[in-house]
Write a structure and sequence with these properties.
Chain lengths: ~170, ~270
């Protein structure tokens, strides 16, 4: 059930990301809705399908990007791993865990994308990439982190309702 | 006897009235009557409206709701018509462009998405191999060169914009005939490079495709030189170029379908070649 929801959700998110969010940059950086939903899902209690959602999100992102296939999948897997690690460490403050996961996850995804471009032979000045893409994108992701976490928290409650003790 | 008196009084009054002798008296009498009549009529109308008001309010509210709905519908129609006018103007300019460049065959396509990675300056268009599009075909707008098709599916294609950091185009300056290479930058700008130090270039020079390399047809407008950077210790001059195309406002594009890019990579000698 949750995988089906993930398929539909990331399909919609990929469309939103490529049609609207990509057209609203801050300098040259943009928010990454798919990453935010993957991280928020990975931080939820009782959720077992974090890795599946990560894969689905990575596949959809790869469909809409000219980056070498697999770049997003690898980056999202690393980010999800970090989020799961943070969940265990900072389990009492989920919003803090979300902000930390978004901070680290955004860096991972952006640096992986940058590395992929550098490997394919495209010369990109690191300082420009940092100032114009990475930091603005990080700021946008951090702004959206809490609202996305709240939405995903409600969604997790709907998909995995808490069992009442008799 | 009484009847005779009454008849006499009546005839007398009629006679006085016909003779106009009762007019002042009637004026004196009528004025307060009219005032009283007006006062009473106003009060009556007020009471009548008070009684019939609920029905009127309901009717007015219904009419108001209907009018508001009609107003909203008309506003939507206005927005749609404005959009259609805007699209028609855009298509008209594209048709004008086609007529001015009859040597090429074109297919129009709409830009439907952008690359989700900010490191990639690519767009996705709603035409693909089913419409005759192939990898490498140049993509233009009425203003100038936009890029080339990097990947094709049956119903869509991915276009690499000329401001992508991986894009490199051989260009020529129209006024001076100086050749150079146009590269995209991560900032979304484009830069002219590999210009000989001996070449004279001016801000405002028009940058067009040279056709060298076989990736693009010649003489497609790209932009204008804005600033020139020339250092004594570098081999080449470079210049920033203002692109003719506004990359943030891409809606409809034209693909030149009768141009087949030439792959010259087998002709380029590699370092292993003896």
């Amino acid at each position: 059930m949750s995988n089906l929801v993930g398929l539909i959700l990331f399909g919609v998110l990929a469309i939103l990301q490529s049609t609207i969010v990509s057209r609203m940059p801050l300098l040259n950086g943009t928010a990454d809705l798919i990453l935010l939903f993957i991280l928020a899902w990975a931080l939820q209690d009782r959720v077992e399908s974090a890795w599946q959602w990560c894969l689905i999100g990575g596949i959809f992102a790869s469909l809409y990007s000219a980056l070498p296939t697999g770049t997003f999948i690898i980056a999202y897997f690393i980010a999800t791993g970090i989020a799961r690690l943070l969940k265990r460490r900072v389990w009492k403050a989920p919003f803090l865990a979300m902000l930390a996961a978004v901070f680290v996850g955004t860096l991972v995804v952006q640096l992986t994308s940058l590395t992929a471009r550098l490997i394919t032979g495209v010369n990109i000045p690191i300082i420009n990439a940092l100032n114009l893409i990475l930091l603005p994108g990080l700021l946008l992701n951090l702004i959206l982190a809490i609202p996305v976490f709240s939405i995903v928290h409600d969604m997790a409650g709907w998909l995995f309702p808490e069992e009442l003790e008799a | 006897m009484q009847i005779i008196y009454i008849l006499l009084v009546a005839f007398g009054l009629i006679g006085l009235a016909l003779g106009g002798y009762l007019t002042p008296i009637s004026r004196i009498l009528i004025n307060p009557i009219v005032s009283a009549q007006s006062w009473l009529a106003k009060r009556y109308q007020a009471v009548q409206s008070l009684i019939t008001q609920p029905e009127d309010v309901t009717t007015l509210r219904q009419q108001n709701t209907a009018l508001e709905a009609e107003n909203s519908s008309l506003q939507v129609q206005i927005v749609e018509l404005q959009q259609q006018v805007s699209e028609a103007q855009l298509l008209s300019t594209l048709v004008d462009y086609e007529r001015r460049h009859v040597e090429n065959q074109y297919t129009a396509a709409a830009v439907i998405a952008r690359d989700v990675s900010p490191f990639m300056h690519y767009v996705i268009i709603n035409r693909g191999s089913d419409d005759g599009l192939r990898k490498g075909m140049p993509v233009i707008t009425q203003q100038g060169l936009l890029g080339s098709i990097a990947a094709v599916t049956a119903g869509a294609a991915r276009v690499q914009l000329i401001n992508d950091p991986g894009s490199s185009i051989n260009v020529i300056l129209q006024q001076s005939g100086v050749e150079g290479v146009l590269n995209g930058l991560i900032t979304g700008e484009i830069e002219l490079d590999m210009i000989s130090q001996n070449a004279t270039i001016q801000p405002g020079d028009l940058v067009i495709t040279s056709g060298l390399g076989g990736n693009y047809p010649a003489n497609i407008v790209i932009g204008q030189v804005v600033t020139i950077r020339s250092d004594a210790f570098t081999l080449f001059q470079s210049a920033s170029v203002q692109p003719a195309v506004d990359f943030s406002q891409l809606e409809i594009v034209l693909i030149i379908t009768n141009f087949q890019p030439v792959d010259i990579s087998p002709l380029i000698p590699s370092s292993n070649t003896p």
